Amino acid sequence: MRPTQIRFADRPSITGFDPKKLAAAAKSAKNDPWARYEAWRYTGPFSRWNRFKGSFPGLGIATVAFGIYCVAEQLFFKDDHHHAKGGHEMAT
């Protein structure tokens, strides 16, 4: 058995503000006179990719260097310490 949902009718706003009309008006207009002046914000050095690319300077080089270090450590720097399988033996 599913619980029933009670839906109330939309009450008129006492202030006259309609959020649906605001959302419809906020959509971009076809003939926006300021569009040409705002276009520079999203092109050239201010494009989304260029802004993200400068966020982490040196991250690519550091990642490659760390990868090379991990491979070199596994190949050339073996652990020469031989540990007992049972751990450290205590003297009695």
From TrEMBL:
User: What family is it from?
Assistant: Belongs to the complex I NDUFB3 subunit family.
Alphabetized InterPro entries for the sequence = NDUFB3
Localization per Swiss-Prot or TrEMBL: Mitochondrion inner membrane
Provide GO CC annotations from the record. mitochondrial inner membrane
Instruction: Read off the Pfam families from this record.
Output: NDUF_B12
Name the chain's protein.
NADH-ubiquinone oxidoreductase B12 subunit
| Bilayer topology | Single-pass membrane protein
Q: What is its main location?
A: mitochondrion
Q: Which GO terms describe its biological process?
A: electron transport chain; mitochondrial respiratory chain complex I assembly
